């Protein structure tokens, strides 16, 4: 069972890396090159709202799938995996409208703020908080069981 768990974790990590590595080919996002330039004076790119939102939703779903593989592989707990998925979905539901507002405002709200909001939309940063949180939870449950 340990081998299967590690294979799930490795598959999840490779999947997240693959999404990132192939982002130019898989997703419609004219803001990739805009933010790669790191020049806030560059011309605001033309884009299509529907394709942009669809690309972000597809990317989110792939990131969610691979993040859930990592969580399940590490903790072998369906309930925790579901809780992790719900947390990731909540962060996405909060950050996507804020990022879309930033786009509609042409990043007048702030270049760096928009840059970081985009990070929460396109990258599974919350997994960096979920894994240590669940690890701590697992340690606390272990201590409780040892004490009983």
Description:
The protein is an all-alpha fold and 148 residues long. Helix 4 runs antiparallel to helix 5 and helix 4 packs parallel to helix 7. The protein starts with a helix and ends with a helix. The mean pLDDT is 93.
Average pLDDT over all residues: 93
Number of strands: 0
Radius of gyration: 18 Å
Output the structural class. Answer: mainly alpha
* Terminal residue distance: 27 Å
Helix-strand pattern: HHHHHHH
Strand content: under 5%
List keywords for this structure.
148 residues; mainly alpha; 7 helices; elongated
Protein topology:
Elements: H1 2-21, H2 23-26, H3 31-36, H4 49-75, H5 78-104, H6 111-122, H7 127-147
Structure at a glance:
This protein is mainly α. Helices cover 79% and strands 0% of the residues. It starts with a helix and ends with a helix.
């Amino acid at each position: 069972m340990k081998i299967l768990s590690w294979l799930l974790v490795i598959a999840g990590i490779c999947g997240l890396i693959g999404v990132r590595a192939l982002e130019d080919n898989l997703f419609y996002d004219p803001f990739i090159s805009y933010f790669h330039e790191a020049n806030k004076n560059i011309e605001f790119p033309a884009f299509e709202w529907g394709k942009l939102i669809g690309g972000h939703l597809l990317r989110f779903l792939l990131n969610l799938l691979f993040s859930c593989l990592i969580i399940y592989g590490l903790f072998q707990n369906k309930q925790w995996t579901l809780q992790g998925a719900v947390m990731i979905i909540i962060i996405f539901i909060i950050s996507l409208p804020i990022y879309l507002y930033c786009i509609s405002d042409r990043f007048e709200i702030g270049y760096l703020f928009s840059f970081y909001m985009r990070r929460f939309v396109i990258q599974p940063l919350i997994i960096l908080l979920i894994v240590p949180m669940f690890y701590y939870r697992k340690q606390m449950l272990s201590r409780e069981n040892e004490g009983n």
